[in-house]
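Summary for the steering committee. One of the milestones for this cycle was to obtain a three-dimensional model of the protein with zinc ion bound, which we needed before selecting residues for the alanine scan. The sequence and ligand used are listed below.
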Amino acid sequence: MSIFKRLLTNKTSSSSSIIKNSVIAGTIILSGFGQDVMAKGKSYVAVEPLVCDLVKSIALSSDEVTCLVDRKQDVHDLKINPRQAKLLNNADKVFTLGKEMTPSMRNWENKKNTVVVGVSAIDVDDHSDHGGHEDHSDHGGHDDHSEHSAKVDDHSDHGGHEDHSDHGGHDDHHDHGGLDPHVWHDPHNIIKMGNIISKSLKKDISVFNRGDRKLISERFEKVDSLLEGLDSWIVEQVSSIPEGNRVIVSKHKAMEYYGDAFGFKTISLLDFLGDSSSLRPDNISSTLKMLEEEKVQAIFPEQIPASKLLRNLSRQSSVPLASNQIFVDGLMMDGNTVSVAVHNTCTIVDSLGGSCDKDSGSNLESEWYKLSD
Ligand SMILES: [Zn+2]
């Protein structure tokens, strides 16, 4: 064999082994790529910060969860900008409390990829003194209808949200007598929301991938048990408040689920004062009378500094303002879903003559952080 031929043969054999190797490499790359596609998972958008925190706690770490709205933004007054519209359009799924909390979701709710987890999608306990819930109290078992079918449409006709979107404050946006959207103040309702999320996430996973579905179930179970722990913790803190003191007075109807769940009477000042633009002396005097009759211990501001109206009421009635605000419309600037419940509870308990075990509350808060690690 000539040296040339030998070289050629060698070259052929070595190039065939290169081909062989590259076939193997290609297989590895391809299967690696395949796994990567699966591992990349889905891209989800959650509208309200609290819902976003909840979705992150349940979704797989390989899923991408984007929070649509900044914590500073009041979702009651949200206007969807082009960037946000793009995010909503590109998401595999959109999770939201729904139009009762976030009126601008009105046009997105009926889209196929939108999953409503708020008041219209869960079976909430009735507020006895609150119109508009009655028709829902008798047909149980909403927990699992993540498709939120006809029920949502039933409410599409109670408009009156639009006219509030342009005046910054919280003044009267809860005056509309529709469904009260502040469901998460009762931790059991967060569990129901989480249940819808978990079922919906599992639907996105291939039938062959039992492992990931099981993982989501396990993550939801942790959320569930932590929220049960939060619920018991709140019950324990509230039990330290003298019974006659268990009245929460705040500006707008947002703490009713909390009141119902933990045994408070809740009073919304807007029910007495009406629209702040129509403030009348007789409204003021009936408010002062109520504060006295109910032996109200504290008025809870929803923002700090408290409004002039609240400060005046406090001065005239000698009922102190709570030293801290309560956060009624979602998450605080820092912290998670548990943090806001702990903060509100300790503010309420300490202001009404009880004593709050903040340290054990902080432990629950850190446990929640671990969920989305
Ligand atoms: Zn609100």
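Key point for the committee: The pocket of zinc ion is lined by residues 76, 174, 182, 252, 254, 328-329 (CB under 6 Å).
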